[in-house]
Amino acid sequence: MVLVARAEEDLGKVVAEIRAEGGEAHGLAFDLGDKEAVHRISGAAAALVGPPSIVVHNASTLGPLPMPLLLDTDCEDLERVLAVNLVGPFRLTKALAGPLVLRKRGVFLFVSSDAAVSAYPRWGAYGISKAAQDHLARSLAVELDPVRFFAIDPGEMDTKMHADAIPDADPATLARPSDVAEKLVAIVEHADSIPNGVRLSAADFDVGAIACRPVDGAAA
Length: 220
Fold this sequence. Notes:
Blueprint: E1 2-5, H1 8-20, E2 26-29, H2 37-49, E3 54-57, H3 75-103, E4 107-111, H4 124-144, E5 148-153, H5 160-165, H6 177-189, E6 199-201, E7 214-216
Parallel strand pairs: 1-2, 3-4, 4-5, 5-6
Antiparallel strand pairs: 6-7
Helix pairs in contact: 2-3, 3-4
């Protein structure tokens, strides 16, 4: 497993935890919004673990905090949100997809948001980036089937990002990231039985019944 994050210290802690549990993990400290980083990420990952079979696009930024109204958002800040949340995953997918396409199997998960389908005040830049990312997954599914592409809405989670966005939220009302991660694993395990290109809700994915309710339809 190769993990990529901007915060090298936090990344090191996660890698150490995985290794302590007997797993294989490697950390690469890069900013996915940096165009020059993408080929370094793909090259280092291939050297460490070989060609990928599963890619999870979880890199994300809200933009400036507190989040401004859309017309008060600087163009450069919108560009930065799109660079991290949309263009970075697109570039990395281009760099990594070749071996999966040749093998005709593999899974790309794009971690989405409710803000991709519902408009909220001050969430404009983030929501735009996630809506575009959802359509990126659908478009790739049409073009590169049978490689699987899914956009996953994880729901509201007890994370630092959520706390940054909504400081007054009660953590007890939010999903635990570890529980959502289990749903992502289940989706990967049953990827071949899920219509390619759909947008899924992690909360609605029924692991026991191996069933899921797409938030919207499969790619046409």
